Amino acid sequence: MNSSSLNSQIGQVVSIPRCDRWQAYQRLQELSIPCCCTEDGSLRVSIESPGGALQLWSVVQQLTASRPKLVYYLEQCWQLAA
User: Fold this and answer.
1) Of residues 42 and 24, more confidently modeled
2) What's the pTM?
3) What angle, 0 to 180 degrees and rounded to 10, lies between the N-to-C axes of helices 67-81 and 50-64?
4) Structural domain span for residue 57
5) Which superkingdom does the taxonomy of this entry point to (predicted)?
6) 25 CB contacts (<8 Å, ≥6 apart)?
């Protein structure tokens, strides 16, 4: 999806530090989640399913959460799987 068609659609603007924005954009592209960086520097993402929302949350957390918080999430997943 090109940026002009995404800009014309309703999308979610993700607040993420500029230094992490390109990495988030690349990962979302790999996951086939439509997104673009707008002229004002924000990252606009089109979420089309609950799975897409979860993937977006995961990408943002990987880039912005503290290490202890990421360890906590991982431990919670392991407890659920047991």
Assistant:
1) 24
2) 0.74
3) 140
4) 3-81
5) Bacteria
6) 35, 36, 37, 43
Q: What is the pLDDT of residues 25-47, one digit of tens each?
A: 999 999 999 999 888 888 899 99
Kindly give the residue spans of alpha helices, DSSP state H, lying in 2-82.
3-8, 18-30, 50-64, 67-81
Task: Say which residues have a Cβ less than 8 Å from residue 18's Cβ, sequence separation at least 6.
Answer: 41
Domain count, the chain: 1
What is the chain's mean pLDDT, rounded? 84
The CATH number for 76's domain is 3.30.1370
Say how many C-beta atoms besides its own lie within 10 A of residue 24's C-beta. Answer: 22
